[in-house]
Design a protein that fits this description.
With 349 residues, this protein is of the alpha+beta class. It has two domains: 161 residues, Aminotransferase class 4, branched-chain amino acid transferase, N-terminal domain (D-amino Acid Aminotransferase, Chain A, domain 1, 2-Layer Sandwich), CATH 3.30.470.10; 164 residues, D-amino Acid Aminotransferase, Chain A, domain 2 (Alpha-Beta Barrel), CATH 3.20.10.10. Strands 9, 10, 11, 12, 13, 14, 15, 16, 17 and 18 form a ten-stranded mixed β-sheet that branches. Strands 1, 2, 3, 4, 5, 6, 7, 8 and 19 form a nine-stranded mixed β-sheet that branches. A hairpin with a 5-residue loop joins strand 5 and strand 6. The chain is globular, with a radius of gyration of 21 Å. The two termini are 16 Å apart. 39% of the residues are buried. Bound molecules: 2-OXO-4-methylpentanoic acid.
Length: 349
């Protein structure tokens, strides 16, 4: 069903897998499929290469584009696994739906993913520090300057071998008093490309002050803590794990929901509820705030070392026991070294 055109010679020998920069090296092949005249046509895997597109393509003007982030992991026997790929499939179609992009067929998605990763499986290296970051994305490709939904789209999957997302482990974040990433009725809950573009300016301003990321606050009062950078965010307060509930503004992260499940299994009370900066500062003052961490496909689980609000910096305890335990367990499942009791993983074959 999917046409496959293999490369004649792999580029893998030229890659320094010990010194990868996140998202800068791409595997030998890519998946591509076009939407024209009302249907998705001719899914194809071919050598990774530039695509030819006119400057009038609608995506360049109106940003009608969505994406996903997922990973493949290699176990100690050389088998390659995906983690909850159905969640990414459902979410890219939720994102597409919100951006008026036609939904992508399930069989093309899974067949394309499976064949692509099978072809490029040597690019997935074993060990918890290595994975293959998979980037499915869709964009508007009609040649037009009309500000309406495009009548043509391109769906692609490209893959990049990665190590960790952040270099270094000292993550200090700035609580935003001005900027928000999402508002009610908007697109914060989906992976619209523009959600990320809109973060670049505030994040680079924060970086000039020495912060790795911003904690996004609600668009009305900047009172509620919503996400951190490209991650969902969790607070351990008085032995209770608190995170924002999913709604119009919060991304329904696959790592987020997996961490909630694993925490509950450990008997930890988890509350999905709005959380105010004042509550977090009070908890910090009373020594009840023991951990803050972000979650996401790219970062997995990332402990935060300090947060700053209104120029006051609040340091967090160095021990991040819960974040570490949850991360180890999640990685164990993802790399097939722990029992997958929730049936989350899917083997590439
Ligand atoms: C992911 O964790 O997959 C993300 O969406 C982050 C990405 C923007 C690098």
């Amino acid at each position: 069903m999917i046409k496959i055109n293999k490369i004649s010679k792999s580029r893998i020998e030229s890659v320094d897998f010990d010194n990868l920069v996140f998202g800068k090296t791409f595997t030998d092949h890519m998946f591509i499929c076009h939407f024209k005249n009302g249907s998705w046509l001719d899914p194809e895997i071919k050598p990774y290469q530039p695509i030819k597109i006119e400057p009038s393509a609608s995506v360049f003007h109106y940003g009608q584009a969505v994406f996903e982030g997922m990973k493949a992991y290699k176990d100690n026997d050389g088998k390659v696994w995906l983690f909850r790929p159905n969640e990414n499939f459902k979410r890219i179609n939720r994102s597409s739906h919100r951006l008026q992009i036609p939904e992508f067929p399930e069989e093309y998605f899974f067949e394309g993913l499976n064949q692509l990763i099978k072809l490029d499986k040597d690019w997935v290296k074993p060990g918890y520090e290595n994975s293959l970051y998979i980037r499915p994305f869709v964009f508007a490709s009609e040649y037009t300057a009309q500000a309406t939904a495009s009548s043509e789209y391109i769906f692609m999957i490209i893959c990049t071998p990665v190590k960790s997302y952040y270099n270094g482990d000292n993550i200090n974040v700035l609580v935003s008093e001005k900027y928000s990433r999402a508002a009610n009725g908007g697109v914060g809950y989906v992976k619209a490309a523009g959600n990320y573009a809109a973060q670049f300016y505030p994040t680079s301003e924060a970086a000039k002050k020495g912060f790795q990321q911003i904690i996004w606050t609600d668009a009305n009062q900047h009172e509620f803590l919503e996400e951190a950078g490209t991650m969902n965010i969790f607070f351990m307060i008085n032995e209770v794990l608190v995170t924002s509930p999913t709604n119009d503004r919060i991304l329904d992260g696959v790592t987020r929901k997996s961490i909630i499940t694993l925490a509950k299994k450990r008997g930890i009370r988890v509350e999905e509820r709005p959380i105010k900066i004042t509550e977090v500062i009070d908890a910090h003052k009373n020594n009840k705030l023991t951990e803050v961490f972000g979650t996401g496909t790219a970062v997995v689980v990332l402990p935060i070392n300090s947060f700053t609000f209104k120029k006051i910096s609040y340091k967090l305890p160095k021990e991040t026991n819960l974040a570490n335990l949850l991360k180890e367990e999640l990685l164990g499942i993802q790399y097939n070294s722990l029992n997958d009791e929730y049936n989350w993983t899917r083997k590439i074959d």
